Amino acid sequence: MNLKQLIAWSHSDQPNTLKVLPSPFADSSHHILLQQFDDHIEVIKGLRDDAQDSPFWQGMHQLFGVTLSQQIAAFETCYPWLAQHTPIPLPCWLQTVYNADAQPCGVRTHFLAGQPTQTEPLEQAMVEQLADHLYHWHNLSSTRFGGLQQPQGERQSWPKQLQDFLQTLPDASISQRQLKQQSLQPLAAHPEAFMPEQFGVIMPDLRWDQFLVEAGRLALTDLDAVVFGPVALEWVLLEALLTEQQANWFLKAYPERPPTLAPVRQVYRAVLCQLQVFGEQNAQAWLNFPTWFD
Q1: Does pLDDT of 237 surpass 60?
Q2: Which of 73, 184, 192, 223 lies at a 20 to 30 A Cα distance from 24?
Q3: CB atoms < 10 A from the CB of 223, how many?
Q4: The architecture CATH gives domain 1-108
């Protein structure tokens, strides 16, 4: 649904004011509208026409068997369920938006107050809230990986999923060849390291710009990519996301020891690089990220 269609659809509710918000980041998958009514504010996120063609969502489909449309269709049940299992606020689902072909293409939620975390100092309390939040979601377990409603992937098939996906890594530069080699070798040598007994709820696109902060309290606004997956993948992503000080705060606040990352780190770094989690980033950057949790 393009922006013009989304605006036309939203006007049927006759809000007092309608505001188009700028995209929070360059690779945003949605148009975002703010609807002001007499007594409350609502948010409409409409799927961009080309969102599902992005490297991230192509990778999510190959790895976890989910599409962005399927994720949106599951929001009605997944939003409330996820909200029950985290101490931080999530959007309250109000309505799923469908296009002219009856395909899910957006979601309407209540407005969450707050400022983007990029504009606020990342204090220790915020990192501790992130640790508490992820701990709760990591302990929502499944023996299969994939979408939250009906995960289909069996643990024995996860190494093959990874191998097939990593074969698509480019190898034009020295660093690209190095990353590809360092990921495929341990995967072939020790596939059992990539078969966790349980998969947890993770966000393969976890970034600070998906959170708001209000009076020092975090709120999560983007749940598009939440799936059952290997918790170690998210811990590897955290090493790239957090500074050394933040990693120490996180580790002290997380109630359990992290999974052993050494056998899987390079594989999951290659996966995250190919997904372009932080946008387009060269392979050398992923090779150079620190190791905070060993």
Answers
A1: yes
A2: 73
A3: 21
A4: 2-Layer Sandwich (3.30)
